[in-house]
Design goal:
The complex is a heterodimer of chains A (481) and B (262).
Chain A lengths: L21 E3 L6 H10 L4 H19 L23 E3 L13 H9 L6 H5 L2 E7 L2 E5 L2 H5 L4 E4 H7 L1 H7 L10 H9 L4 E5 L8 E7 L10 E6 L4 E9 L6 E4 L2 E6 L4 E8 L11 E12 L5 E8 L4 E4 L2 E4 L5 E10 L4 E10 L5 E10 L4 E10 L7 E10 L5 E10 L5 E10 L2 H9 L4 H12 L1 H4 L4 H14 L6
Parallel strand pairs in A: 3-7, 6-8, 7-9, 8-11, 9-12, 10-13, 11-13, 12-14, 13-15, 13-16, 14-17, 15-18, 16-18, 17-19, 18-20, 19-21, 20-22, 21-23
Antiparallel strand pairs in A: 1-2, 3-4, 5-6
Helix pairs in contact in A: 1-2, 2-8, 6-7, 9-10
Chain B lengths: L7 E12 L2 E12 L3 E5 L6 H9 L4 E10 L2 E2 L5 H6 L2 E4 L6 E5 H16 L6 H14 L10 E2 L5 H15 L3 E5 L7 H13 L6 E6 L3 H5 L4 E6 L2 E6 L2 H9 L2 H5 L1 H6 L1
Parallel strand pairs in B: 3-10, 3-11, 6-9, 9-10
Antiparallel strand pairs in B: 1-2, 1-4, 4-5, 7-8, 11-12
Helix pairs in contact in B: 5-6
The chains are: A alpha/beta (481), B alpha/beta (262).
Chain lengths: 481, 262
């Protein structure tokens, strides 16, 4: 296998830095940090109080060393007092339209392939662009509003739709849920908010594009999507960051709520800077994502393509509360260089006849290490619940690793639970077969990897499926030959 | 005897090769001219498949001595994909499965890689489909196989027919068939052999590797070479295959010198 041992030395093409005037908080975390963020955003008292509660809890957890250590990832202790918790590009005045966005920012998103202006004309995707700690632009807002759909930055939602935010914020991921979610609850700065009213099928993809730019900062965004009865929305997020020698923390929280007969499809293409081949730099991606299928026959699907970040700690989960509700998790995680990922899902079956599907595809190359960690819990009242889990790992080379940690708790005898797991190597024989048919080694690896991920990639919206395929190929560039 | 005036497609001289530290080929000499079909026979472990792998450039086999000239070029200097693009085709004894990659995607990628190399225009989806449908008839493969993952869940016979389909599609200069008959029932054997026979032509050379004479009843070779312990111990016309069938391989190993002379 010597041909495919020296892996993934590809250029990270999003590694540039935008020179822009910043409004930064001093590093460190205490009450004044939280008050500053809240004040910058003109937040109501109830939200400040909520943040402060979270802060107190977090500091307590920090003091008693409750940072989770159970994940199979290894990193030096984070000094939470050295992080800058708020950094925003300086905006001269309130923006009336996209034309007023700083051209430097527009150019940044252009370089990332997300043209905020052209987006309007070209594709049916509405974009909320989050730059460091704040949302800098949201496209298609007015058109969506005509159907009663709210899609805006989280900060704006707090001011414009406080009743909705107050009702749902923390209702799926409470502020005290876990160490990183608690930190996020105290210092979250922006993110996206969407509300799809009763019976409305959102006519376009909603998406948020996250960009970390500033050095020494953490990004703590919060996304909240609510699909009211019989509503439908497909949402996707993308993420990139500059190449830096330091590690940067990204601790986001995403909450989804689906009421009766509602459906939410949530897709992520995560391409944070992964660090270099020696494991220097890269983003720590410690994220809590959870969806509540509150209503009967509601459905939440998570699809993720995780190719970036130095470390990923992420378990998009579904609480299947409503009878006949459905949860799905489709994941492709790729770890190359010295990347580490501990990722998976939790499917909590509470209602009757609830159904969940887990398809996890892990690809390890170079010195990459990854673990699938998944919990399927069938509660005592979840009569007729069904789960199907499939976890496949593909190894490229001899120095990477793949691990599977499935947890299963069944408290109702009528449940059906199936689990399948496979581990395979890209065989020399598969590669040779392709090459004997004239296909170059790199194209062959990319073809085999994409074939391996097919069940997940086909869940992505069309435009992003292509991007994801390219990304998988790109992440393996230079991995052979 | 092949006429000296014909163009040699393949000239193997004193070829030695090892795999996993063991020398398996111990000095092979063989010349194959355009338009000819040669059979390589021999007992298990004689080096037949290793020879096929060396010619196709399998990374697990190391050439330690000798030369292989293919259409005037030093074959051993080329990467496997370059050999394929130059028209060398190996029908695998054990075609591999590639989950999630459809046969049609693979065939199109392969055909277009070869066409690019030949300086021909790549085929778009429509033209490709027209062509591949035509070739599928030749290999008697149902169209539904286009949409299935490469060789995944194919029966032994289906896999071999899929190899013949690729052979027909890529129209190589030199086709090497590595035990294409193994594991086939008589009907599948006939289909495969018919497919191969229809692809015989004045510009194409074929090397048919087989353990049994049975295949050679259907694909009648111009020459038969018998391999034993990494060497060609005897060569002859198609009747040599029949003789082997009657006597088995045992007599060759006892009297290799006589065999060569005969």
């Amino acid at each position: 296998m010597s041909d495919i041992e020296s892996l993934a030395q590809q250029e990270y093409k999003y590694g540039f830095v935008t020179e822009i005037e910043e409004d930064r908080a001093p590093p460190g975390l205490d009450e004044s940090t939280v008050r500053l963020i809240s004040q910058k955003k003109n937040e109501p008292q109830w939200l400040l109080d909520w943040r402060l509660k979270a802060l107190r809890r977090f500091l307590q957890m920090l003091e008693t060393e409750q940072e989770p250590t159970w994940a199979k990832v290894d990193y030096p202790k984070i000094d939470y007092q050295k992080i800058v918790y708020y950094s925003a590009p300086v905006q001269k005045k309130q923006l009336e339209s996209l034309d007023e966005v700083d051209p430097e920012l527009l150019r940044t998103y252009d370089k990332l392939g997300i043209s905020l202006l052209e987006q309007k004309r070209l594709t049916g995707v509405a974009v909320d662009a989050v730059f460091d700690s704040v949302s800098v632009a949201t496209t298609f807002k007015d058109e969506l509003q005509k159907q009663g759909i709210i899609f805006c930055s989280f900060s704006e939602a707090v001011l414009e739709h406080p009743e909705l935010v107050r009702k749902y914020l923390g209702s799926v991921v409470p502020y005290s849920d876990n160490f990183f979610a608690c930190l996020n609850s105290a210092v979250f700065s922006d993110g996206s908010f969407a509300y799809i009213p009763k019976g409305v099928r959102c006519p376009m993809e909603l998406s948020t594009y996250f960009r970390i730019n500033s050095a020494g900062t953490g990004q703590f965004e919060r996304t909240l999507l609510v699909a009211d009865e019989s509503a439908y929305v497909s949402y996707l997020e993308g993420c990139t960051a500059p190449m830096r020698d330091e590690n940067q923390l990204h601790a986001a929280v995403v909450e989804l709520v689906a009421l009766d007969d509602a459906q939410i499809k949530y897709a992520t293409v995560q391409n944070w800077y992964p660090g270099d081949e020696n494991g220097v730099g890269g983003i720590y991606n410690f994220v809590t994502k959870r969806g509540a299928c509150r209503g009967r026959r509601s459905k939440i699907s998570w699809t993720q393509v995780e190719t970036g970040s130095a470390i990923t700690w992420k378990y998009p989960s579904c609480i299947l509360q409503g009878d006949d509700s459905v949860g799905e998790f489709y994941s492709v995680a790729m770890t190359a260089r010295r990347q580490q990922a501990d990722t998976g899902t939790k499917m909590l079956h509470i209602g009757r006849n609830t159904k969940s599907t887990i398809i996890s595809k892990g690809i390890s190359a170079g010195h990459g290490q990854q673990s699938y960690r998944g919990l399927v819990r069938i509660g005592p009242k979840a009569k007729g619940a069904r789960n199907y889990s499939q976890c496949d790992s593909l190894l490229l080379g001899d120095e990477c690793g793949a691990h599977t940690f499935p947890y299963l708790e069944v408290k109702n005898a009528s449940a059906t639970v199936e689990h399948e797991a496979t581990t395979s190597k890209i065989g020399e024989d598969q590669l040779f077969y392709c090459r004997q048919r004239g296909i170059s080694e790199e194209d062959a690896v990319s073809m085999i990897v994409n074939g391996f991920c097919k069940e997940v990639l086909r869940e992505l919206p069309m435009e992003f499926a292509v991007e994801a395929q390219n990304l998988l190929g790109l992440s393996l560039e230079g991995s052979v030959g | 005897m092949s006429a000296a005036s014909k163009a040699a497609v393949l000239e193997i001289r004193d070829l030695h090769a090892s795999a996993g530290g063991n020398e398996i080929l111990k000095g092979i000499d063989l010349t194959l001219d355009a338009g000819e079909v040669h059979a390589i026979m021999g007992p298990n472990g004689s080096g037949k498949s290793t020879l096929a792998n060396v010619l196709a450039g399998h990374p697990s086999v190391e050439v330690t001595r000798g030369s292989v000239v293919y259409d005037g070029k030093d074959l051993l200097k080329l990467a496997p994909e370059e050999r394929a693009c130059a028209g060398l085709f190996l029908a695998f004894q054990y075609p591999v499965e590639i989950p999630g990659v459809t046969n049609s995607y693979f065939l199109k990628a392969s055909l277009n890689a070869v066409r690019r190399h030949r300086g021909e225009e790549e085929l778009d989806a429509m033209d490709f489909l027209t062509l591949v449908r035509d070739k599928m008839k030749l290999a008697e493969i149902d169209e539904k196989f286009l949409h299935r993952a490469i060789n995944e869940g194919f029966s032994g016979g289906e896999k071999k027919r899929n190899e013949i389909l690729q052979l027909a599609l890529l129209e190589p200069r030199l086709a090497i068939l590595d035990e294409t008959d193994s594991g086939l029932d008589i009907d599948a054997l006939r289909i495969v052999a018919d497919g191969v026979n229809r692809l015989r032509g004045p510009d194409r050379a074929m090397l048919v590797i087989t353990h049994y004479q049975r295949l050679l009843e259907y694909i009648v070779p111009d020459r038969v070479h018998v391999l034993a312990e990494g060497r060609v111990v005897t060569s002859g016309g198609k009747e040599l295959a029949l003789e082997l069938d009657k006597k088995g391989y045992g007599w060759l190993e006892v009297e290799p010198a006589q065999g060569s002379a005969g």
